[in-house]
Amino acid sequence: MATPPQLSNGCRCRPPLTSPSLHTTSDSSGTCRSQHIESRNSSTESLEHPPPNVPEGEHIDSSEGVIQKHQHPDTLDTLDNTRTSSINSSQESLKSTSTQVCTSMKEKNAGTKSGSSMGTHSASAVPLPNTRWSHRQWIKFLSLHWLSAYRVLIGLTFIINIVVFAVLCKRLSLAAPLIATAANIFAAVFVRQEDLINLTFAFVAKMPSNLPFWFARTISDLHHYGGFHIGCAISALLWYTYFVYRNTVLFLGNADAGTATASMWVDIVTCYSFLFSIFLVCITAHPRLRVKFHNTFEHTHRFGGWTALIVLWIHAGVSSNSPDNTHMHANPAVWLLAATTFIIILPWTRMRRVPITTEIVSSREVKLGFPFKHMPYTSTMRFSRSPLMEWHAFATIPNPDGESAYIVISQAGDWTKAMIQNPPSHIWIRKPAAMNFLAFSPLFNSLLLVATGAGIGPMLSLLRSPAIAKMKKQGRTIKVMWCVYQPDAPHWQFVQDIIRNVDPEPRIFDSKQGRPDVAGETTYLMKEAQIEAVMVVSNPKVTREVVEGVKAWGGAAYGAVFDS
């Protein structure tokens, strides 16, 4: 790990994060004060309330929560000001200069609302020193971003397919690319199957906590299995493109010779139909297109995938009647296709329509309860009002009675807005609930849970789980950080109770006073409390900043993948 540059006061700074950031200035007396620079990003609206509108050239003073004018507007977007860490090899030097450069955690805790036992903080007011990254730090930060576990799995899948092609290319029959295509499609579908996810996640979660840190940190990236899904899907497209090329050359030769039969025409038409279908599915799954046109992505992925599957069955039946090809029962590609079809049909046999109870949490959040016996902890389930058109995944929270569960929905789009403003009496659910990345929490000796807004929902399931109770009994450290609009409001009391049952002194921010630098606060608390791993549930931007910021320090950090 690249060592952050040493500061003159003995502090080490964390790698700067792009946004939101804290901007440090000095008054005439030379005393540092901080200014909270709010990043306007629409991706945050799903989990946090927007702060008051701030005119250009003004800022929210993080210590007072009020709008003030910038004396120097040209410094508004400075991004290289970073938080210092209170835990390093020069702690004594840090203590002697902390009043000038750093604010300790105790000083920040003193800024809570007077007379309140909730320990709610306004936006962070920690003065941050000016620092610059070394070349090694930049290289490491970029590698963390571009060489994530997700992308590594995509690359490994490509490498495996390239090696297979390189080894067999000189003796590949016409059927070989079809088998490779079927194998990749099967793997792409199977890796997302809920039963497989639960089996593998449960196996990893039950590993002993005394594993080497590097192993626990690596194995906990298992929730990036979506990278394997994408790698296999694109590999299937490439294999089938190669098959279509060879089949087209063969067909054109027969057509020129006048020996092309009706089955050959059907075969070549189904080839290009399947190629177009799978190409369309892959293109619409591109991250930017998926986010911008999510409904189109979901419909194309579902109906385009079904169309491709039907066309592939027609193609398999037609090609098996050719005298040069093997019969269907002896063709490995057909058996792989049959297994893929079974996996795709299985979830539709597990749908149930259940009644729901609605409890309005706020104007932007709603709590939906539904009957479900023995709902597993740290799990995610899919919900729908129109099963053929769309499904939405939400983390489930079991009720103590063991007979029901609930989810917390935050307004993030048309579907969630309709659920809040006009909730139905019944909803479709799809079993089983699939375990999520929070299930890996017991692998670490100390843990920091970070959430913003309704992202606290998945954390509640973890906080009430037997795994956390066991960790507390063993004396392991569990800290909670939560940023939300008006956390002291009565509708959030049930959340406060669950949090404080595990962490009596959580770090809770009121975003009404201005949003803090969540990534900076996370890194600071992680270093201050000697935390091994961080679990974060927030919007994509904050999740990425927290995970990359913590990993830049050599810690372990995990968040949702946002690939569906």
TrEMBL record:
<feature type="compositionally biased region" description="Polar residues">
    <location>
        <begin position="19"/>
        <end position="45"/>
    </location>
</feature>
<keyword id="KW-0812">Transmembrane</keyword>
<feature type="transmembrane region" description="Helical">
    <location>
        <begin position="303"/>
        <end position="320"/>
    </location>
</feature>
<feature type="compositionally biased region" description="Polar residues">
    <location>
        <begin position="111"/>
        <end position="123"/>
    </location>
</feature>
<keyword id="KW-1133">Transmembrane helix</keyword>
<feature type="transmembrane region" description="Helical">
    <location>
        <begin position="437"/>
        <end position="463"/>
    </location>
</feature>
<feature type="region of interest" description="Disordered">
    <location>
        <begin position="1"/>
        <end position="126"/>
    </location>
</feature>
<feature type="transmembrane region" description="Helical">
    <location>
        <begin position="222"/>
        <end position="242"/>
    </location>
</feature>
<dbReference type="InterPro" id="IPR039261">
    <property type="entry name" value="FNR_nucleotide-bd"/>
</dbReference>
<feature type="transmembrane region" description="Helical">
    <location>
        <begin position="262"/>
        <end position="283"/>
    </location>
</feature>
<feature type="compositionally biased region" description="Polar residues">
    <location>
        <begin position="78"/>
        <end position="103"/>
    </location>
</feature>
<protein>
    <recommendedName>
        <fullName>FAD-binding FR-type domain-containing protein</fullName>
    </recommendedName>
</protein>
<feature type="transmembrane region" description="Helical">
    <location>
        <begin position="174"/>
        <end position="191"/>
    </location>
</feature>
<feature type="transmembrane region" description="Helical">
    <location>
        <begin position="149"/>
        <end position="168"/>
    </location>
</feature>
<dbReference type="InterPro" id="IPR052979">
    <property type="entry name" value="Adenylate-forming_domain"/>
</dbReference>
<keyword id="KW-0472">Membrane</keyword>
<feature type="transmembrane region" description="Helical">
    <location>
        <begin position="332"/>
        <end position="349"/>
    </location>
</feature>
